[in-house]
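Friendly challenge for the regulars: who can give me the structure tokens for this chain first? No prize, just bragging rights.
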Amino acid sequence: MINRFRDIQARLEDQPYLIRLGRLFSETVLIELEGEEIYLTFDKGHIVSVIAGPSRKTPWRFALRSDADALEQFWQPRPAPGFHDIFGLAKIGRGRIDGDILCLVKNLRFFKEVMALARATEEVDA
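First reply, four minutes later:
Bragging rights claimed.
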């Protein structure tokens, strides 16, 4: 799963509008999937590190906790209802958001679009 987040890190560098959108976001975010911890450290809209946990020494601002299957469904080209959004995951009981919610809400569009970078693309028939 950590490789998926490293892929997000690489894809983010090819999205100048997203970097501009997150230019004020410099925080560490915890992603926890079935006990596996991954720390994403952002600096002015760039992901500067993707580190596997667990770590009691790494401070984080907010956390997204879920199971791997729910996140895989979130990353589908056309996710099912409830899996389309990080708050949708929480609403259907497949995810939880902890920590500084105000920080998340202030940067919601940026964080949601970064998480969606791993979404598979599908071919559209014309």
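The longest helix spans residues 2-12. The first strand starts at residue 28 and ends at 33. Your move, everyone else.
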